[in-house]
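Reviewer comment 2.1 asked that we show a complete input and output for one of the modelled complexes. We chose the guanosine-5'-triphosphate case, as it is the one discussed in the main text.
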Amino acid sequence: MPSIPEAELIRLQANQAHVRNICILAHVDHGKTTLSDSLLASNGIISSKLAGKVRFLDSRADEQERGITMESSAISLYFKIRRRVAAASIAAAAAKASAAVPSGNVMDQSNDTTATTTTAGTGTEDSAANSGTSTPAETVAEEYLINLIDSPGHVDFSGEVSTASRLCDGALVLVDAVEGVCTQTHTVLRQAWKESVRPVLVINKIDRLITELQFTPLEAYIHLNKILEQVNAVMGTFFSENVLEEDYRKKAEKKKEQEGKGGKEGSTGLEDMFSDWHVETQDDSHIYFHPSQGNVIFASAIDGWAFRVDQFAAIYAQKLGMKEAVLRKCLWGDFYLDPKTKRVIGYKGLKGRALKPLAIHLVLDNVWKVYDVVVVNPDKEMTEKVVKSLNLKVLPRDMRSKDTRAVLTTIFSQWLPLSTCVLLAVVEQLPSPAAAQKIRMPKMLHPFETTPPEPTEDWEKGMINCDPTSGVVAYVSKMVSVPLDVLPKNKRKTLSAEEMRQRGRVQREQLVAAAKSAELGEVGVHLDVDEVVANRLQKEAEDKAAAEELEGKEALIGFSRIYSGTVRVGQRLKVLGPKYDPANPTQHCSEVTVDSLFMIMGRDLIGLDQVPAGNVFGIGGLEGHVLKYGTLWSAEWEGGQNLVGKGLETAPIVRVALEPEDPSQMAQLVRGLQLLNQADPSVQVLTQETGEHVILTSGEVHLQRCMADLRERFARIEISMSEPIVPFRETAVDAPAQIVTSSAMAVNEAQGRDQGEKLIAKSETGARGTIVATTANRHVRFVVRTVPIPEDLKKYLLDHAEQIQTYVEDKSRNAKNNSGAAVLTEEVETGEQAKAQKKLLDELTPLFAQAGEDWKGREKDILAFGPRRVGPNLLINQLGFDFSRNRNNSSADSEESNSNGGITVQDMAESIQTGFQIATNGGPLCSEPMLGMAFFLQEIEILDSSQEVGGGSEGRSKMAVSSGQVITSMRDACRLGFLEWSPRLMLAMYSCDIQTTAEVLGKVYAVIARRKGKILHEEMKEGTPFFSIQALLPVVESFGFSDDIRKRTSGAASPQLIFSHFEVLDMDPFWVPNTVEELEDLGEKADRENIAKKYMDVVRKRKGLFVEQKIVEHAEKQRTLRKN
Ligand SMILES: Nc1nc2c(ncn2[C@@H]2O[C@H](COP(=O)(O)OP(=O)(O)OP(=O)(O)O)[C@@H](O)[C@H]2O)c(=O)[nH]1
Ligand SMILES: [Mg+2]
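Response of the prediction step:
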C-alpha cells in the first residue's frame, strides 16, 4: 500500500467531525504496540507482512530489546470509508457524515450502517462483510484523520497513561483473552473514566484460546463472556461510585440550603428514600460493553484479524432472510437458530434441545475452522475449500506457502482485516473532538460541580464548542525530547520516486553530454565528467557534515492538544505553569512565540503552519517555559485557567545518586539531568544537601530507562550510579526493652556527656521513654516523654498526610510567627482554613480519646507535625500553658526580651521544635525518618536566666548559644527516648502482582520467599491454567526481582511492582542472643540472623555513620593453612 501524502493528513485536520483522537490502553504485554502495527500497515507506513512483528512504535532500542513500551508515541493515520447507500439516501448520508457524532449513549452511535459497506486504506474494495457487489455510483466516500497514541502498560510508566488519556477523546482498551482483567486494566479503565474518555473494548490474543489453550468454540464463548463480565463489573463500580458521590454532594447541598433557610423541620425521611431510588434508577446501560452494541472487538493482533459481530450480521442477514439490525442484536447472547424453522429463537424456545448459540454457530466456528485447517491440522485441500466458502480470493502462490502462519495472515487479511475493523469501530463508536469536548470540558473546568454552570466566558465557549475561530487554549501534557536531525527543517528532503528518477535522468544526460564533448574535443564546453562527479561528491560531503553536526543534539517538543482556536507559527501565547492560580495571574505565567508546529508521526515529524482546535500536535519553542506540563492560553485573553489534572504517577521510590565517571564532565551531567527532568513527567531530579545529584524513579525498569536516556541522549557521558538507595523508616514498639548493647550506645554517641555527668538521661521516676535533658551550658532543663503513637491514630495521620500538609502549609503561609503555638488552635484567618482545621480536630478528637488518658484532649496541644512539619510524628505540649501566648507571664515582645536580658521559655520554643524536626527526620537507628512517634513536652525550666544572659550583643550571642544547645539537647533527648522503647526498622513494601502458569508456580514462590516476600493471595483464573498471585515484597530486596523471576520461569511470569506502604520489620536491630540455646545456635552477636541489623548497618555504612563490626581477633586460627 502506498504511503499517504502528508498534504492529505494536513487537510483533514481542519475537518473536525472527521478527526478522532484516541489512545490504546492496557495492561503490560496485552498487545497494544502489535495492534498499532496493523493500523500503521494500512497506511503504508510499514509493510503488511511485517505488521505485528516490528512493533514500529517501540522505536527505542531498549524497548525493542525488552519487548515493552516505555514511552508513549503518537501517529496520525488516514482512514477512508466508502459507505454503500441507496441512491436516494446519498444526500442524507452525506449530511449525516458531516454532523458531529452524537454524544450520550454509546448505542446511539451505532450509526445506521445497515446498508453500508466499508473500505479501508486508500480505497480498495473491502471484502470484510460483503461479496463485492457495490458499484462506485452507490457509494459515498468519507475520509478520517485518526490521531493515535500508543501508551506503555508497565506500571512504572503509568504517568504516561495519564498523559495519553488527557489528550484523547476515546480509547481502545485491550484485554488479553487468556489473562483477562489485570491490575493495570483496572487502572487504565479508571483513568479513562476519570477523564471522560470513551472506551472501546478489544479482546485481543483470541488465537491463544485456539492454539494454546485448545478451547472449543463453546468453551471460548463461555470464557469470553466471563471476561466481558469482569470488565463490566469494573465499569459498574465506577458508575456506582460516581452516583453515590453525586448523591452525597446533592444531599450536602440541600442540607446547606435548608440550614440557610433557618432550619426547616427535619426531613420526613421520604427524601432520603427517593434519593436511594435515584441511585437505582439512573440509566447506566451506556457504560457497559456488549458485542451487540458494537463496542467490543475480538482480535488477534499478531495474526492481523479482528471483528465485531455486526460484520457477521451483514453477511448472514440475507442468507437467513432476516433484518440485519435484528440479527446484530442476536449475534451474542442466548439466541439460537432453530434448524427446522430456520428462525432465531431465544432460550425458552430451546425446549431442552442442545443447540449452539448463534455466536458460536455463525461466528466462532468459522474462525476456529480456519485455524484448524491451516495451523492446528494443516490440510491444503480443506484450506482451499474454506477459502472458497468464505468467498475470498487468495493467490495460489500464497496458499502454497510452507509457513502456515503466513497463509493464516493472508486469509484473514482478506476476510477480517484488523485495521478496517478497528478503525471503523473508532470512527463509529468514539466521539469527534467537538462532540467529546461538549462533555469533557465542563467536567475538566468544574470537576466538583454536579451540574456545571452554563459557559459565560469566551474561552469557556471556545473550549466547549471546540471552536477553531476562538482564542487559543491548549494543554501541553509532556515535553518529548527528539533528536535535532528529525526536525523537518533539518531533515534532508526525501525525494519521491519520480523526483529521484528525474534527478538521475538529468545527471545521466549531463554525463553523456560531458563525455561527448570530451570526445569531440569541443572547446568552450565547461562540463566534464570529473566535474560532475566532483560536484556530486562535494554535495554529499556537505550533507554529511551537516547531519553530523546535528547528530546527538536534542530538542524539546511539547506534546499537546488544542481545545479552542487555531495555533499558528509565530503567534504569541501565554504559558501557564502547573502552579498557576487564576487568583494570582502574574505568577507562573510567561509569554512565548510559537516557534514551530508538528504533526507527530511516530519517530518522524511533519512541519505544519497551523493547527485548528481538536487536534493532537507537537509544538516547538516552549523550552525554558514549560518544565513538564502546562497550559497555553491566547495572549489576548485576560487571566487563564489551569488545565493540569491529577495524574496516575506512582510514587517515585527508587533513588540513586549519580556522578560522572570523569569528574570534569559534571556540567554535562547537570544539563543532562535538566533535560531528563523536563522530558519525563514521572522522574524527580534532586540535588541533596550533600551536593549529590539524585534521581527518583518509580521502579527498576523506569530507572534503567532513565539511565539509558542520560547516557545516550541527554548527557552523553559515562555515568556511574550508586546502589539504589531504598528508604526506611524508624519506629518503636511497646515490647520488652533489650539489654542495650554497646552498639546501641554507640548509636547514641551523640548524647551529651560532660565529665562523666550525663546531661541527657533517662528519668528515674518518670514513665517509660521520659528523658531529662539539660543544655551543656546548664541554662535550660526540660523533660520530654517519647511514646509510640497508637495504631489507629498513626493510620489516620498516614492516610491524611495530604490534608495535613495542605492545612499546615496554608497556615504557615498565613501566620507570621507561629512558633510555640499549637498548630491546630491558633486563630485562623480565612474561612477555608477554619473549616479545614475544624474537620481535622473533629476527626482527631475521638482518636486521641481512644489512645488513653495521657492523650485525651491533647489534640489541641499539638505543637508540630514532623519531620518537615507535616510528617506522621507529633510534638505535644503537656506544659499546661500555651507557651507562645503566656510569654513567661510577661507581655514583652521578643525584641524586648532580648534586650532586657533573660531567656524566656518562649525563646526556646522554636529551638525545641527544630530539635524535634531534626530528630524525626533522622532517627537513632540509621538516621532515617521516624514514623509514628509522639513526644510530650512535659517540663521546661530556665535555670539562672537573668544573671547569665545580659543585654546587648553579648546577651544575644549567649542567647544564640543557648538556643543552639537546646536544639541539640532536644534532638538527643528525642532519640534517647525513642531507644527507651523497643526500636524497629520499617521496610518500604511493594505490592506485587504476578500472573503465572501452574507449572512454574513453585519457582515463583521460591523466588518470593528468598526475597523475604509474603504471599497475600493466590487465585486460579477460572477456565485457564493461570494463577494470579498477590504478594508483598520489601523494596530493598526487589532489585533484579523481575529478571530473576523471568529467568527462573523462562519468561512465563512477569511481576508488576507498585509501592504500597511501610511495614514494621518485627525484629529489634539490637537484639542479641541471650539464652544458652540462642547463643549456641547463633553465636555471640547473631549478626548472621539479625536482618534488621543487617539493613541498618548497610544504611549506616552508606551514610558514614558508626557501624559496629566484629573484627576477627585471631585471624590465623581461622585460616586453613596448607601443609606443604
Ligand atoms: N498469541 C498472540 N500474541 C500476541 C498478540 N498480540 C501481541 N502478542 C504478543 O504479545 C507480546 C506483547 O506485545 P506488545 O504489542 O509489545 O504488547 P504491549 O501491550 O504493547 O506491551 P507494553 O507496551 O509493554 O505494555 C508480544 O510478544 C506479541 O508478539 C496476539 O494477538 N496473539
Ligand atoms: Mg507496547
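Confidence is low (pLDDT under 50) at residues 87-136, 741-747, 750-755, 886-901. We note this here for comparison with the apo prediction described in Section 3.2.
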